[in-house]
């Protein structure tokens, strides 16, 4: 397939398709592809809190690449094709379903606040929640009734999304457990991939410490974006620790935040 070996075009000559809080999408080198660029911006509370953190985008690009490639390898459908460079990935163009899908294994964040459950409580089973992607409304939580009534997804698509969420959760839980990290919860997004007349639901966006809550199994140290949300500091160091445990950063590397991470070449 030709699009697996794209011609590379400098960023300033590509057409920008979309810019979000943490990523930019550019026109891809072949029809049906996009280039996903990871920024260093850190945001929380729907961008009410915002900083630029040197090296974050590089780490998220590599961690997300690692996870999506492994998901592709076990047959989970995703938009990911391959990484292009330190900050960019080649992805398939999809129509994003306007939902954030949150899978929770341990009580934390808004679930603890909403239901008065102590943070860190193991849930009786994994819980899947849906939030309507709308920054102006602060991404409100919605039910399957809302989703089907307003046409955001069909009942079959909801089934496909939930099936994907369970598979991704099983994979991520095992992956992180193997490197001494507890997967508390994570957010994922899905898209419709058009293949001729057929359309299927695939995993899109990214999976990184920006979109997961990751706690060290022994110490419960937070290795995710809560360090930024809660003014704990050490964001790049925490993300670097996740990358190191996954084998993306070499054990000897201890990059200062301003220098950007030194990454293992595979």
Automatic annotation (TrEMBL):
Record flagged with keyword Cell wall biogenesis/degradation: no
Enzyme class: ligase
A Pfam entry, by short name: SAICAR_synt
Any one of the GO BP annotations: cobalamin biosynthetic process
EC number of the protein: 6.3.2.6
Pathway(s) where this gene product acts: Purine metabolism; IMP biosynthesis via de novo pathway; 5-amino-1-(5-phospho-D-ribosyl)imidazole-4-carboxamide from 5-amino-1-(5-phospho-D-ribosyl)imidazole-4-carboxylate: step 1/2
GO molecular function, one term: ATP binding
Keywords: ATP-binding, Ligase, Nucleotide-binding, Purine biosynthesis
Ranges for domain SAICAR synthetase/ADE2 N-terminal: 17-245
InterPro entries in the record: SAICAR_synt/ADE2_N (IPR028923), SAICAR_synt_PurC (IPR033934), SAICAR_synth (IPR001636), SAICAR_synthetase (IPR050089), SAICAR_synthetase_CS (IPR018236)
Catalytic reactions on record: 5-amino-1-(5-phospho-D-ribosyl)imidazole-4-carboxylate + L-aspartate + ATP = (2S)-2-[5-amino-1-(5-phospho-beta-D-ribosyl)imidazole-4-carboxamido]succinate + ADP + phosphate + 2 H(+)
GO cellular component: cytosol
HAMAP family registered for this protein in UniProt: SAICAR_synth (MF_00137)
Family of this protein: Belongs to the SAICAR synthetase family.
Name assigned to this protein: Phosphoribosylaminoimidazole-succinocarboxamide synthase
Gene it is expressed from: purC1
């Amino acid at each position: 397939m030709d699009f697996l070996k794209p011609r590379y075009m400098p960023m300033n000559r590509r057409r920008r398709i979309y810019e979000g809080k943490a990523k930019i999408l550019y026109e891809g080198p072949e029809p049906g592809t996009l280039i996903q660029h990871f920024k260093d911006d850190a945001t929380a509370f729907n961008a009410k809190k915002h900083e630029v953190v040197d090296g974050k985008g590089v780490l998220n690009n590599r961690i997300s690449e690692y996870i999506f490639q492994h998901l592709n390898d076990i047959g989970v459908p995703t938009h990911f094709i391959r990484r292009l460079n330190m900050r960019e990935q080649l992805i398939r163009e999809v129509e994003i379903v306007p939902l954030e899908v949150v899978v929770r294994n341990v009580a934390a964040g808004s679930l603890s606040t909403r239901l008065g459950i102590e943070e860190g409580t193991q849930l009786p089973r994994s819980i899947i929640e849906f939030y309507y992607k709308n920054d102006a409304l602060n991404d409100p939580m919605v039910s399957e009734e809302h989703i089907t009534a307003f046409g955001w997804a069909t009942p079959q698509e909801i089934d496909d999304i939930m099936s994907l969420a369970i598979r991704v959760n099983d994979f991520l839980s095992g992956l992180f457990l193997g490197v001494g990290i507890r997967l508390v919860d994570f957010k994922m997004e899905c898209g419709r991939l058009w293949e001729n007349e057929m359309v299927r639901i695939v995993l899109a966006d990214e999976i990184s410490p920006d979109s997961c809550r990751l706690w060290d199994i022994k110490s419960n140290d937070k290795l995710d974006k809560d360090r930024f949300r809660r003014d704990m500091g050490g964001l790049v160091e925490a993300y670097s620790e996740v990358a190191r445990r996954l084998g993306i950063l070499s054990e000897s590397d201890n990059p200062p935040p301003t220098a950007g991470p030194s990454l293992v070449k595979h």
